[in-house]
Amino acid sequence: MECRAGCAACCIVISISSPIPGMSQGKPAGVPCVQLTEDGKCKLFGRPERPAVCSSLHASEEMCGAADEEAYKILAELEKLTQPN
């Protein structure tokens, strides 16, 4: 499965604890990454500065669902499940 153009759910919904260029403390869940373009592309894609967690994400039906809205819901639920109480 390929990423859907413009979806960017993984660049917005999930938290990232590692530093990102322009976000030295990482990013909280629900906040768009500063490296995300207006058309939903990553400015760091394929570059060494891209955080390992981002490079390790791969589009899949389990994570992305059948539509952007479903991806947002799935990732929000996964984010809740992975956060400490």
Automatic annotation (TrEMBL):
This is YkgJ family cysteine cluster protein. PANTHER family: UPF0153 PROTEIN YEIW (PTHR36931). Pfam families: CxxCxxCC (PF03692).
